[in-house]
Amino acid sequence: MSNTTWPTVRPLAIREVWLWILPVALLFLLSACATGPEQREGVPAASGPSAAADVALSLVGVPYRYGGASPRGMDCSGLVQYSYRQVGIRVPRTVADQRRHSFPVSMDRLQAGDLLFFRLGGRVSHVGIYLGRRRFVHAPSTGKRVSVTTLDNIYWRRRLVGAGRFY
Fold this sequence. Notes:
167 residues, alpha+beta, endopeptidase fold (from Nostoc punctiforme), 6-stranded antiparallel beta sheet, two-stranded antiparallel sheet, 22% strand, elongated
């Protein structure tokens, strides 16, 4: 037998582990923050809101799906987010955030692509995209499909609480 001695391997101390993990985590975090707004190639953001209304109109007939945001199924805020994303504008996911981050618009200044917010069940929880001529497109509720509705409909007119705009 030989008298070979093996080197001892000491475990890394917690501090040494963090000295490796922290810079790597920081690098990932900062690189994620450095990305610019999502833009679709060839789609100018200036055409956004009215073009988003056109996208939404093309989705009439898509089934309602809670939490959905694709042509396979979508809820009201998913319809808004998807339609705007297709024209290069980032919009938050929830109705509350869409309302909070949009620029308020008076009802006499509505333009195609503006968002209409509705109070259902005691809170603002529904959104549609204004098309013009008092019509809007939205994903109404479970069991229904994306459809066009008029603001002359008493149900929706009574629940309308405001409008907002994204650029």
